Backbone:
C-alpha cells in the first residue's frame, strides 16, 4: 500500500482524516499514485493536476523521502521506501508571497 499525505484543504474535500492508503498497480510513479488517488476520491480530480493536460498545478508540490519531486517527469519511479509503504508520498500546497 502506498501512503499519501494530503494538505488539509484536500483532506476536507476528499472527506478523509490523516493519511490515505492506496493500492497502485504496476510501477509506482507520481502519475500512478495520482491516478489511483483520483479514482478513489473523484472530488480531487482537477485539484492537484489540470484535468486536460494532467500537468501539476502551480502551487502544488510533491515530496518523498525528503526530496522535492515536483519537477520530475510524472512517470519517474518513486523511491523504493515509498513503493514499499515505509515512507509517505507528500502532496503539499506551496505558499507564495513575501
Residues:
Amino acid at each position: 500500500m502506498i501512503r499519501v499525505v494530503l494538505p488539509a484543504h484536500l483532506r476536507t474535500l476528499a472527506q478523509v482524516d490523516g493519511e490515505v492508503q492506496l493500492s497502485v498497480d504496476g510501477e509506482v510513479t507520481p502519475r500512478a499514485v495520482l491516478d489511483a488517488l483520483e479514482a478513489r476520491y473523484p472530488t480531487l480530480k482537477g485539484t492537484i493536476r489540470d484535468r486536460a493536460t494532467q500537468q501539476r498545478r502551480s502551487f502544488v508540490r510533491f515530496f518523498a523521502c525528503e526530496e522535492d519531486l515536483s519537477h520530475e517527469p510524472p512517470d519517474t519511479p518513486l523511491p523504493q521506501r515509498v513503493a514499499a509503504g515505509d515512507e509517505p508520498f507528500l502532496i503539499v500546497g506551496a505558499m507564495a508571497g513575501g
Remarks:
- The CA atoms of residues 2 and 22 lie 5 Å apart.
- The domain at 2-93 is CATH 3.10.20.30 (Ubiquitin-like (UB roll)).
- Residues 30-40 form the longest helix (11 residues).
- The longest strand covers residues 60-64.
